[in-house]
Amino acid sequence: MSMMDKLKERISALRLEAETAQDKADDAFSRVKTLEQELLSKEQEVSSLTHKNTLLEEEVEKLEKQLGDAKVAAEEGSAHGTANEGLNRKLSQREEELEEADKNLRETTEKLRQTDVKAEQFERKVTSLESEVESWEKKYEDLSAKYAEAKSELEEINKQLEAF
Q1: Which fold has domain 3-163?
Q2: pTM over cut 0.70
């Protein structure tokens, strides 16, 4: 096998290696884009749940104030039996609303916590993929340099062969 054939084989192998590395880098970039979109979606969900959580906390405060007001009104109206019964019903209703709001707040807080955990997982995954992409880019650069070197050697050999 001549030196020219060996060089052609080497160049062909380097080209194949460079194409494979480029394909893998493209796949990694695609995965990073997908994960970034998922992360953005999760961040929007976290933001939405945080807003909902704030609204529920405000509702709880409002209901607690109404509950306090209802208790005060119930104490003042103890002389009036009918009014007292109405206030007791209102108080029970407010307590049920407060319990429901409290339950919603706990559920929302749990969802927010779970979303935070997922967001952290996605951030770690994105970091890992970015690192992998950097690794593939480095390999691609190394292969490109080897290819350029092999091409230069081939041109030098061609010049020497043409000189003969």
Answers
A1: Helix Hairpins (1.10.287)
A2: no
